[in-house]
Amino acid sequence: xxxxxxxxxxxxxxxxxxxxxxxxxxxxxxxxxxxxxxxxxxxxxxxxxxxxxxxxxxxxxxxxxxxxxxxxxxxxxxxxxxxxxxxxxxxxxxxxxxxxxxxxxxxxxxxxxxxxxxxxxxxxxxx
Length: 127
Prior knowledge:
It is built from 3 helices and 6 strands, in the order ββαβαββαβ. The chain is of the alpha+beta class. The strands form 2 sheets. Strands 3, 4, 5 and 6 form a 4-stranded mixed sheet that branches. Strands 1-2 form a two-stranded antiparallel sheet. A hairpin with a 2-residue loop joins strand 1 and strand 2.
């Protein structure tokens, strides 16, 4: 996430509500990690450096954008546990992310795109 943070704004009767993209990304990250068979989110070099400096983030591997209609588009980079059905896992991630983000933030989610970037092998199989 960039220095100049984006906010998702909802106009209400009594004013407006702004939700930081970091909040939406964190909710997304938690929803992904709740799915059975997910090992974690794939990180970039920037989040790896941040974690080495002691800054934990649930938004690694999550990118947010909006569609032409203003609905939310979420892209997740996921690492699966070995032996999981990849398509079933991705479908479960899509459903859980959409449900969680919409219920927690009230934002409309148009798309949840899941990219399975890797498979984590059991510790005893690693050499």
